[in-house]
Batch of 2 targets.
Target 1
Amino acid sequence: MWQPATERLQHFQTMLKSKLNVLTLKKEPLPAVIFHEPEAIELCTTAPLMKSRTHSGCKVTYLGKVSTTGMQFLSGCTEKPVIELWKKHTLTREDIFPANALLEIRPFQVWLHHLDHKGEATVHMDTFQVARIAYCTADHNVSPNIFAWVYREINDDLSYQMDCHAVECESKLEAKKLAHAMMEAFRKTFHSMKSDGRIHRNSSSEEVSQELESDDG
């Protein structure tokens, strides 16, 4: 049907207005934003990636080792070896406490880190298997600051010898702490070996630990 131009213009404006209203009111949903965990973090090459490793343990003066005889290690069995090591040490002893090692007792191993002249750990380290330690004590007449242990050293020909190792601690309390830490390491090693079937005899850790006695004084 024919309409005047004015009416057609008004009709067009009305339709356009309604369309604009619809477009204005209709809201499209926003796209979802998904956050992903980073697969890698790139570090600046000029920055250090990690700090130098620090060792936990007790600063001590390693007095050395001396062979000992016998298979039964009871209270006082380390007195003679410790006196021998102590006499050698006092010949070059200084007035201050000359720590030259760091003794770190772990569940299955004992690490003796040797220190340089700056007191920092070097790459040289002696490792002792806790299962081979037959006795330890922190009760010595020559000095209450000495902690010693008897270790079964395996030679190249599969023979073995018993060596007494000794360290001087900063105090009597530090020596006793090492003795208690060694006993705890021995108990953990014993229970692990028993769980793995390497210990078949029916005995408790208290009975076996008599071989690795820690005198508290």
Target 2
Amino acid sequence: MAIDLQPWLDGIDASMVFHPANAFVISCGTVTLDLGRGKVLLIWNRNLQIFQLPKGRRNIDEPMLNAALRETYEETGVRATPLKLNIATRATPPTVDEGVDGAPQKSPQITEGHMSTEFVGACLYPDPQSDTKALKAVFFFVATADSTATGESGTQEAYEKLEAFWVPISEVDQKLRFASEVAVVMKAVADIRKSGYTINSA
């Protein structure tokens, strides 16, 4: 007996909404850690008087990971290195093994066990800085850097008043203003440990 797919397709159609590209703000940032010293890189926003994770808008045609590393450098003067992790992701694995009958296996809905530099998570919210209605999506990537190295100066935009701070991971929930950014850091730490890396205490 054939299955009537129309109700299912109608449900998809009813829930699908088109948004033009100018209704989105794509921003990228990092959770940059010094694993040997148990610290995470934050910025102190002097304009808002809050701690935040480094992040900023992606340039046209710029890969998201590149944007995250560039924004981190521009806002903090720190050159971070992306860290490969075993991240649970809905991105498809690079190759799909054949099944027992020789036919290609269906890609899993959630892929684990592949070391990659995929984004660890994202924060979504209405963009408070847009004059027109726009949804902001901030994609965060995990990176490492040396907290004892001196950051470069003169990397910020003229309007930015930001200061870089290395903070013990144990103090992140007390420092960061936004709970979702705390959640991003905790997810990064969990994925780092799941991937076999050691994080020392500050």
